[in-house]
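Hello everyone,

My group is preparing for a crystallization screen and wants a predicted model to guide construct design. The compound we'll soak is zinc ion. Before spending weeks at the bench, it would help to have a computed complex in hand. I've included the protein sequence and the ligand's SMILES below. Output in structure-token form would be ideal because that's what our pipeline reads.
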Amino acid sequence: MLAEVEVADKREIMANQLLVKGCASVKELLTVSFGEWPPKGLEINPEIKHSQTVKLIPMKGDAAMALATPPVLQQELWIKLNKELIQQYGMLYSTMGHEMTHILQGEHSTRLQKSFSMKMAEFFKGGQGVVSEDIMTDFTSRKGNALTLKSDFNKNSGRKLSHSDELMFRMSKVINSKGSEIQARIHQIVIDGYPRWGKVPATSDEFYAAMKNAGFQLPDHIEKKLAELPENSSARHFLSCEEASSKVCKNKVADIQSIIDSLQEKSRPGFWNEVMPALYTDLIEMYGDGPGRARFGLGVNPKTQMPLKYFPGQADVKKTSPAPS
Ligand SMILES: [Zn+2]
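Reply:
Good plan to model first. Here are the tokens for the complex, ready for your pipeline.
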């Protein structure tokens, strides 16, 4: 008998089966993440097949829990999974979902190349800009959303940063620019919550309510909004669900929270007002929920204007939607 709920999670069994098989389509990986496909709550475009094949390769040693193909244009996609480490610190289905998010980011990244010079830079690096990184870069480079207290401290006081302060500052800069990592962790938090919620958050209110349920401390103005939700709001459901208890969810929430804590107090609301919804809606659009971003009031994702050149799994969509010339 399987005593532990986590062991009994059928997704863990599905993930193990795929790893034994040695490869999976992106659709199979999405199915492992949610335990079914399409997930409830979203408007997944059935024309998006997610049929790309990803090699699943067992990995050993202490270096990393898992790795995915970097976002470079190449034929073979792969995910390496270190089962020994994953079992110690997390869940296989969750780590597999994290790496699958990186695979999705890599493919979609080709759809947002803003300028010729950026294109050239990416060409020489052999990769493409990942949209989630652009979201973070945009946020962190904007005035008033400065990264950390330390940078302003330096500017205001005129004092030089100590070596360790500078190291801290650089570290936080690296972490803060990693929108792709935040996005992969949001995916892990969402799939952890999916069995509790019974659906994926599809609106701004639902998203905030779901993140509160997952264990985030939200800024006061969002907490207030949630406390005053209308009686018939669909977001209330997420607040009434049993709270998150898994180790994986706690760790992922703590990871993102530490990034938020490294921001200046005044820029934290911006992280929740802008960055988190932008990363989340980009994520659900990668699942195949085309109008996701618009439903959040964020307008059409600029990615949708880009030709779907490098999407083997989305060839059918490419045929039906004319590519801009
Ligand atoms: Zn990652």
